[in-house]
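Working notes for the structural subgroup meeting. M.R. asked for a predicted model of this chain before we commit to crystallization trials. I am recording the input and output together here so anyone reviewing the notebook later can reproduce the run.

Input as submitted:
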Amino acid sequence: MKFKQITIVNFMRYKGENILRFSTDDKMNVTAILGNNTFGKTTIAQAFRWGLYGEVITTNYAKKEKAVLLNNEIIAELGINTPGEVRVEITVSDHVGEIEHEYKFIRRQSFKKTSPNPNNYDIAPISKARLTVQISKNGVPAEDGVIDNDYDGKRPAGYVQDIINNMFPEKLSNYFFFDGERWNESKNKTDEVKRSINTILGVSSILKIKEHLKDGNRDYKTTVYKRLNSSIKGSSTESQELKSRISDYESRIAKLEKDKENYIQDIKAAEDDRDIFGEILENNHTAEEDQNELKRLESRIESNTRHMENCYRDFIKLFSSCDKLLVSELIPSIERVLKQIDLEGKDIPGVTSDTIDWLIDSGKCLCGEELIPGQSHYEALMKLREEVYPNKIGGPAKLLRSRLDEWANQTAIFVEDIHDKAKEYEDFREEIQRDLRKRDKLEERIDRSQNLQEVRKKYNKAKQNIADASRKKGEVEGKIISYQTNIIGLSGQLKQLEQQDKINKPIYRALEYVNELYAIAVKDVEKLERPTIRELNAIIAENFEKMFNSKDKYACLEDDYKIHMYYRSVGGFSDYEETNLSNGELIAINFVYIVSILELAKMRQEREHGTSRILKLPLVLDAPFSNLSNENTHLIANKLPEFAEQVIIFMLDKDWEASGLRHYTLPDYCYRISRDFAENSSTIAPNGGEF
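Returned structure, recorded in token form:
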């Protein structure tokens, strides 16, 4: 089931006819409407609600009971007897197999000015809103033509509205029509959560039975139990005395209930103060974190600077200790020269021409033979003299070549050591530069931080007020329980007395039936609720991890019907609750709950009926990311196309960029809202997601 189009005519901020067409593509299933605050994004969301359900909801800018539907410019142009019409048309496509059913719902209402004064903009409806539908199959209009919700002679009144409620259950509308700001403001969504779970369970009728029997509500102020109890007739002075004492306790309980309600209001007011000041502290908590980060950075810079200096000294030592490097470039030239030298000479290692000259001068060879010119020994030495250094350099050349080979090897190792040391030095230098830039930014941010001492005092005071009011509320509740116990005891005595009267016997029998039926209803609801909440919490845990990419935190629905967030482990403690949630975290958790409750509804319908229309529903989201970080915005936004067949989202420009939803949005289905401040009206136009 998908929205194809909405046409808004003279509705609130939109003068004349404004048309929005929505993507029905299976993959590129996102339609984005961008605009600044106060430009009219929420007005379009209100148009959806009015078109489908005939009412708008309370927002920051419009109270439900004071909402003016007709555009102000149109009102200004009206004469005293000239009507002005508001109209919203919503076209819905629903595929059943190969057949496309198209429904065009039209809700319109006319208004007139209540005063001829041109400066008086008060208007009144001429008649109640009219709702009709045009139905077609595969583009062919149905034979019925236009079906009127109230005036169709073939069908009962409310037929068209029933079609809408079957498609888009109003009891779940707060979930597939997600108002980020509304969910942010309503921190305690207990009643909302209970209603949604009861809707899924299908126990609304059982709850009405409980209310009718004993609990009471706005519709059942006098319950069956109270009516029966009040009809019991007393027959003795003792019974009258017991009734008087019971009445006295009931009066005390009524007074204590008012005191309890006052303490609840005090707690709520203090919680609001705590949330306000806590948000300020949370938003500025980064100042403390920045200080700690600055210390860590300075320590790291100091440490890395020492390491870099040590690298430099090691670098110098390497250069100082390897003189061979200075001649490393000459080694190839020397080797070429050595190759040209006869290294295979007949010289004797260690023997030079000076050695032979000494022997000749001494006249005696080392072997003891006399050295006489002309004789063989003398001539042999003279011949040898020509073969040794410095006449022949074969021996030193061999030694030099050996040394050169050694130097070449040492030079290669040295060059590698130099390279490693230089890289290590450069790595430290780059890291220091990065940290210096970070330090500069942190110092700027810290310089801008405010003095939070007074805010901290107010925050602590609010927490203390919550504790005091909670303690007093607990004392009152204890007294109420005590008085209720007394009433039960006195009622037992009264029952014994009055049961003796035959007139009261049928009444007591009826009261027993009431108690038994009530106990059965309570048991049935509890029997269904507990496994449902367990199933829901499993879905919540899975979606929380998907959306926030977090394994160190989890969220769950507790017995108080509130969503709580826990750290799996903090400081040695497991399942540690985070109680000081930011507005962004509250919205994020609420969003996880909304997606999860719709998913649970889908699963329940599929189990019970073999199919489900839930989450074949589109998701229409108004400002879902306004208080989220860019990271959380991106994580959640990229999961949206998976959770619904169609997503229609109203958002700020900044959230559009952070979301990454342009990858799921066709250019024709990205719109921008413009506002004419002079005329106080807005217009919508496609812009392809460009700024």
